[in-house]
Amino acid sequence: MTVEILEKYPPKERAGILASIALATSPNPAVERRELSADQLAILAAIVQQAGVAGDPFSGEARAKVDALIMKALTELVLADVNVDALLKAAGSAGQLPPRMYEVVVPQPFLSLFAQFNVRESDVQSTVLNAEDVQHLGSEPDQCVSLFSRLVVSKEGRDPFWAVAQFVRGGNILHAQHFWRVYPSEIDLSKAQKPADLIEALVKTVGQEITVNDRRLRYARDMPVPATNAGTIELVVPTTPGDETIATVSAGVVRPDGTSEIILAYGVSNIRYREYLKRHNVSLAPLRQPLNGVQQKLIIMRAPRAGS
Amino acid sequence: MKHRIQRDFFGDEHYVWCSEVLDCSKLNKYARGAAMPASSDPYQIYKDLDRIIRSNDRHGAKIVEQRKNLTALAVEKASVGLISEDDRDLIAAIVAKAELVEFAPRLFLISTPMIAGRAKLVDPSLWAGTEREWILPDLRPGEFDIVELGL
Question: Which end of chain B offers a freer environment for a tag, N or C, measured as fewer CB atoms within 10 Å?
Fold first, then answer.
């Protein structure tokens, strides 16, 4: 969409001219008032003509046509030399996109793990689409975490809870990792300000100790840990007979001094979480397999070197 | 969407046009604010925008105008160095690509004691009717709550 009359102006000036006209002709009172110059009025007249508007250009339907033409032309001028897909991907990694502009992927391993807690794909999607709060953590590729929270209040009078959906963020794609229900009727949320605080509060009740690079913890945020010789982050999950630990760890870069920083790490006891959900009348699916705790899980991630 | 762009890119300061009443139809006939025309009644404006969103009217004039204004503001702010050209491009891309529902209306419930002395009475020639309207050029976080109405 080209605004023909702008062709006679230098390319760098065109967007600015159009933006001034756009704001000066806005009926929206939340836009500061301003006057149009004679030149701008002439350009506006040409735009109105190009939009095929007859009569009052500021009446309802005519205005919509003029606005649509200006919007389209302005966007094309601004983004003419921009790779929009790459721009949105980079913005997604940086956590700068509105929630609905992320693509949500709910992988099968997530569904297999969380189906036992009566979590469906729609619960995950709904939490993102209706999020009341969003928290993007980390900036390193494959180590970025996004948390979305939503208060779920049922019409049937069930106990309200905060749904907290956790994702691994890569570009503008979110891969579902965990989904928790946090019940304010049981969990003290008086100090919670962000979604990660909801998880921290939950872990106080259902947490399980894990080890990250020899550091034992139940929950950690922005905590430095010594890096291993191999420059890895090692998560060791304990063997607890009759239980299973659901754990997560995300780490920042390994610094020159040999330390790394845990962005978010915690462990949740399956058994304790199940008992907690039962107290709130959540229907649970049978366990996927007996929780015999025989196998020790060891997840190793290579943390990126600073500056690499 | 406007709040998000203002918050994330424009320094989290908001230029807002305000009314002293939310829904003039709920007021008694002689009460201050009762004669507020629909075009300046926050509740009516909210309902109009909500209707556009719910009916998925992609060509809804008010939403097209919002997209146009936000993009134009980004161009203008970049031209005077208030935001970077990268941010300008990102705003233009987000605003152009965002789904209609991202433009769902929200009410700002402003705490009047916190903005004492900063609200400017709009020139009466710009009022929609005979009721007072206000401009606050620099509303900041903590001075208002964001409200979504369950219509």
Answer: C
pLDDT reading at A308 higher than 50: no
pTM (predicted TM-score):
0.81
What are the distances in angstroms from CA A238 to CA A218, A299, B4? 11, 12, 43
CB atoms within 10 A of CB A248: 18
For residue A121, the distance in angstroms to the closest alpha carbon of chain B comes to: 21
Chain-centroid distance, C-alpha B75: 19
In this complex, do B67 and A71 lie within 8 Å of one another by their Cβ atoms?
yes
**Crossing angle, helix A60-78 and helix A38-50, to 10 degrees?**
100
pLDDT mean across residues, chain A: 84
β-bridge partners, A161: A152
Chain B residue with Cα closest to A79: B89
- Sort out which chain B residues have CB atoms less than 8 A from A20's CB and list them: 72, 76
**3-state DSSP assignment of residue A64:** helix
CB-nearest to B94 from A19, A28, A98 is: A98
Tell how strand A210-212 and strand A232-236 pair up: antiparallel
pLDDT (0 to 100) of residue A30: 56
**Whose CA is closest to B111, among B148, B86, B65, B143?**
B143
Residue showing tokens 């002439």: A42
Mutate to test the interface with B, among A14, A78, A125 (most CBs of B within 10 A): A78
Count of CB atoms situated within 10 Å of the CB of B58:
10
Contacts of A33 in chain B (CB under 8 A): 126
Chain A contact present for B85, CB below 8 A: no
Residue-wise pLDDT for A238-281, tens only, equals 777 777 788 888 777 667 777 778 889 999 998 899 999 999 99
Q: Does A30 sit within 8 Å of B65, measured CB to CB?
A: no
Q: Which amino acid is it at B126? A: L
Q: A67 and B68 in contact by Cβ < 8 A?
A: yes
pLDDT of residue A288: 63
